[in-house]
């Protein structure tokens, strides 16, 4: 099964905050509220490009 490139690109909360012109704290809050899907790697969140695009469509 082929893997989409959007599923292989991951962003930090800081990078997503910069893209969306908000703060990393807001990104973390949206993740905890279930508004933005992310995976936790160690103690840090990573957001896939696919999940970011889906969030922006809402």
UniProtKB/TrEMBL annotation:
Helix-turn-helix domain span: 10-58
Highest rank taxon of the organism: Archaea
Coiled-coil stretches: none
Pfam families named among the record's database cross-references: HTH_17
Record SUPFAM superfamilies: Putative DNA-binding domain
Name by which UniProt lists this protein: Helix-turn-helix domain-containing protein
Protein's organism: Methanoculleus frigidifontis
Lineage, uppermost ranks: Archaea, Methanobacteriati, Methanobacteriota, Stenosarchaea group, Methanomicrobia
